[in-house]
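Exam revision sheet. Question 4 asks you to relate a sequence to its structure. Input first:
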Amino acid sequence: MARPRTPLLDRERIAATALQLVAEQGEFSVPQIARALGVQTGSVYHHVDGRAGVVELVRELVCDRIAGETLDLEPWDRALEAWARSYRAAFAASPRAIPLLMTTPVRAPRVLAQYERAVGMLLAAGFTRDGVMPLLTALENLVLGSALDLTAPEAMWEPSPDTPLLADALTAVGPGRADAAFDLGLAAFLTYARSLRGEAA
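Answer key, structure tokens:
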């Protein structure tokens, strides 16, 4: 029998299938991926290093949406803001992947390379070596929390007659609550980051 012109299985298809399963059910298993692709479970293991290997493929697939070239912008705070907005958009497109990816160590080479780039940019901007990772981790917390917030109902609170101040505040903010909150948080983050370098906000 002639071989199919298109391979039945490759790392890209495994990653895409795993991400689809995560989008549908918040998780995946290697046997589920195999069934979805119409292959034996062992065939999947020929392409990945176990379940952890699939997680890293999913991580690369999601993080490939982040515009890494934003880290080349100048000055540094413009670069960090653009990167944060792109990072948020990438994960907002796959919010159910956030718990999966944020609770396992990062090993994916392309993702590590992007963080290497971010660290280098901040060091070149004058941040201290011991201050870089807390800064990036805080930014990541803001970005990922906001990406999840985008999936929440616009009306997250249901005021009662006993909470008139809350009701009025919710009316005042109008639509776009999650975006407004992210803009505020990012502006505050950048103001604080500038203060670490003794810059004027």
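Marking note for examiners. The CA atoms of residues 91 and 147 lie 6 Å apart.
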